[in-house]
């Protein structure tokens, strides 16, 4: 995230909701790579926090999948991301991706914001199955 470039492009009216063929927005990209400052900037300018990519993942899923706890915290604390959002892949929630990433701090953050420790996927798996 080159913040100065992001600011310039936003000023020049670059669409915040431009999507790739997989329906990723710039917010998905920044969240996936743990670019917290870029995430906050995009959100300040109106990026859609709830947009789902083709596989129905939100920016929070992407941050948790990458184990990016500070980015996940920004999405939850400052923007109010949905901790219970389910992805297309077996209806995983952010806590499942956090467990799979092996990031205990991210799992704790999900629990702090209301994720259920025994949240089940469509096939019945809990975060413990993915840890």
UniProtKB/TrEMBL annotation:
It comes from Aspergillus fijiensis CBS 313.89. ANK repeats lie at residues 22-54, 55-88, 90-122. PANTHER family: ANKYRIN REPEAT AND PROTEIN KINASE DOMAIN-CONTAINING PROTEIN (PTHR24198), ANKYRIN REPEAT-CONTAINING PROTEIN-RELATED (PTHR24198:SF165). GO terms for cellular component: cytoplasm. Keywords: ANK repeat, Repeat. This is Ankyrin. PROSITE patterns: ANK_REP_REGION (PS50297), ANK_REPEAT (PS50088).
